[in-house]
Amino acid sequence: MKIKNIAITLAATGLIFSAQASVAGTTLESVKKKGVLSCGVSVGLAGFSQKDEKGQWSGLDVDVCRGVAAAVLGDASKVQYKPLTAKERFTALQSGEIDILSRNTTWTHTRDTSLGLNFAGVIYYDGAGFMVSKKLGVKSAKELDGANACIQAGTSTELAISDYFRENNMKYKAITFDTSDQTRAGFESGRCDFLVSDQSQLYALRIGLKNPDGALVLPEVISKEPLGPVVRQNDDEWFNIVKWVVNASIEGEYQGVTSKNADDLKSKGNPGQKRLLGTEGDLGEKLGLSADWAYQVIKQVGNYSESFDRNVGEGSPLKIARGLNAQWNKGGILYSPAMR
Amino acid sequence: MFAKKTAEQIKLETRPSGAGATAFYNNPKYRGWIYQTALFVFLIGFFYSIISNTLDNMSAQGIKSGFSFLNTSAGFDVLMSLIPYETTDSYSQLFIIGILNTILVSAIGIIFSTILGFIFGIAYFSHNWLIKQIAIVYVEIFRNIPVILQVIFWYTVFNALPIARESLSLGDAIFLNVTGLYFPMLVGDSGSEFVYGAIVIAIIAVFVIKRWAKKRQDLTGEQFPVLWTSLGILFGLPLLVLLVTGIPFHLDYPALRGFNFRGGVSVIPELISLAIALSVYTGAFIAEAVRAGIQSVPKGQTEAARSIGLKESKIMSLIIVPQSMRVITPMLNSEYQSLVKNTTIATAIGYPELFTVFAGSALNQVGQAIEIMFMTLAIYFIINMVISVIMNHFNKRTELSSR
Question: Are A237 and A255 in contact (CB under 8 A)?
Fold first, then answer.
């Protein structure tokens, strides 16, 4: 009796473990099957991903999720958002809990090479900077020797600030918090003398302060922080889709295709516009998507400049200038590879 | 499974042995061995399968594995470390810093929660109505609020303090502000070693006197004022040496330089908030354990003690508390272990203990979740095993010895 029990248990376990290794299909298949895209975003950062009172998500990072959903599923609203802290984000992607990580994440060598992840492009060129209270009377980061810093745990900023202070022979004390809200609270209470984060976040955090005018963003930008969406490695099909959705949005701006004129240009546009919108060529087919994939992205989400203005630029409370994030022919470094 | 087997074994053993007729697999002795071996092999196979499977999947996904990251430079700062640390130091250094910070806050928590627990546990039996009510209110309030809220509460209290330049100060020596508590540090000059020597001698003398007094009491029944003599020696001898050597000490005062106070001893608010919250929270549970322990001692013991004329204060310390330890100790063990595990909520306020520093920042920078989580889990396991071993030893000593 007992021997039989043990034998059955052993056999059953053997079966379970022999069936393990195979990976359950590609991400594209699973997203199509689920009918919804699972997208990892930040727990709340003005301009990048934030939830309004009605539970609607918006932001530059969110627009990547919406763009991919529009390209793959034909509907930008078919996204399930998973708010993640900086510490949780990579594990969530590695374990397959989310299909894309679109959460103001810096593209670094270590992350790209050792985490089993691929960065699918850059949607915002950023750099780490400092915010101080005006009361301190500090005008430059060089005057911050011996000060306390509020930082978000597990970010590339945590490393950038250590490099900067070492380079300049200065000392600091790092007070690290889990979320950007806690970081802001630490700054507001005076626990730290300055807050260090990506420039874009500094402006976003500043408008959330009780007295935004009491805080000053210092001129120094101490690191390169290219932010963009991330996917799992070894799924080239999915990697290509996310990469080209980002490019389509940038190319859309370059070609002058907007959510308003996309319908017209489908038939009346120049060859480049028509290729992008799917009325000429077979770009969609090569991605394993429908011919109008990029049309759906631009129609439903808008091109890069529409998305930028709405979320972080002139049309938003953040009012961040395009700067580096302008097209390459307009003083910035935004450049999509050729769409042909 | 095992219980059944023993029953069967007994049955087999009571059976008359048929002259070598039983096959070896029916022999209870071999049978036991076969089962044990099969189970052992199965368990090894099970864990091997899990581990190799995980590693295969990780390498298939392109995730790096192994412990080589421990030798690479961490590159970020930690708020507080008990050993010297530079941002260029390795992850293994960071690991040790995390462990030490965890042990520090656990030790502080264990000491203060025990003190609070015993004070309020005994206060429950006070004849003074107000003291008893205070004990009840303390237990009910702090036991029923989630510990994470308590940590955040104390941290918020700290955050409401003035900034460094507007510190609260006590005699220009002790300063309190939002960045922490600062007080002067005693620094020994030449000659101070005599004073340290005197302290060691005084401690030894106290132990000797205590043993001698006990022996004398056992022999003659006469009591010796051990407490007062001990205090006299403990303070008197070092003080005498201090005066003879001409007070070879000076105080290093904290002073506001630049952004913050330098010099003296500083304690960060994260540590204070976490230590207060854990002590107060766990103290409430220990108070209940102490109450249960005291109530477990039969009333007759108190009455008997009174009948031989012991003072009320002595009844508690000599008769009731020692007997109640039997009941209290196992509960203390669990409370201490919970406290150690609860230190991980430090992540909510950024106190750099093991979980925050290593399973938090380090994990996110190198991304090697399996290795880092394994190391972190192992440390909590070891700390709690050590506590358990100590408490079990203590438990053996307080057990009811039946003669």
Answer: no
Q: Are strands B180-183 and B260-262 parallel, antiparallel or unpaired?
A: unpaired
pLDDT tens digit sequence for A276-323: 999 999 999 999 999 999 999 999 999 999 999 999 999 998 889 999
With a CB cutoff of 8 Å and minimum separation 6, the contacts of A51 are A44, A57, A81, A83
Nearest CB to B350 within list A111, A147, A175 = A175
Give the model confidence (pLDDT) of A322-333 as tens digits: 999 999 999 999
Chain B residues within an 8 Å CB radius of A20: 53
Q: At what angle do helices B91-123 and B321-342 cross, to 10 degrees?
A: 140
Residues 19-48 of chain B whose Cβ lies under 8 A from any Cβ of chain A: 35, 38-39, 42, 46
**Closest CA in chain A for residue B162:** A190
Do A154 and B360 lie within an 8 Å CB cutoff? yes
Is some CB atom of chain A closer than 8 A to the CB atom of B166? no
Q: Measured between CB atoms, which of A144, A173, A178 is closest to B79?
A: A173
Q: How far is the C-alpha of B102 from the C-alpha of B354, rounded, in Å? A: 6
pLDDT digit string, tens, across residues A226-246: 999 999 998 999 999 999 999
Residue A15 has pLDDT above 80, yes or no: no
Interhelix angle for A27-34 vs A60-73, to 10°?
80
The residue whose two tokens read 């103001």 is A104
Residue A19 has pLDDT above 80, yes or no: no
Which residues in B lie closer than 8 A to residue A21 (C-beta atoms)? 53, 56-57, 60
> Could you say which DSSP state residue B400 is in?
P
Helix boundaries (H) for B128-188:
129-143, 147-159
| DSSP secondary structure letter of residue A324 | G
Concatenated DSSP letters of B339-355: HHHHGGGGGGTT---HH
Closest CA–CA distance from residue B175 to any residue of chain A (Å): 15
Q: Tokens 């206060």 sit at which residue?
A: B123
Selected residues 65-124 of chain B with any CB under 8 Å from a CB in chain A: 75-79, 87-88
The pTM for the full model equals 0.81
Return the pLDDT at B4: 53
For chain A, say whether B267 makes contact (Cβ under 8 Å): no
Contact list, B367 vs chain A (CB under 8 Å): 90, 110-111, 114-115
Spans of chain B, pLDDT less than 70: 1-21, 400-403
Using DSSP's 3-state secondary structure scheme, residue B124 falls into coil
Residue linked to tokens 């070092």: B238
How does B277-301 read in b/e, with b if 16+ C-beta sit within 10 Å? Answer: bbbbbbbbbbbbbbbebbeebeeee
- Burial of A253-266, coded b for 16+ CB within 10 Å and e otherwise, reads bbbebbbeebeebb
With contacts defined as CB-CB under 8 Å, which chain A residues touch B259? 144, 146-148, 193
In percent, the amount of chain A with pLDDT more than 90 equals: 76
User: Per DSSP, what are the bridge partners of residue A177?
Assistant: A152
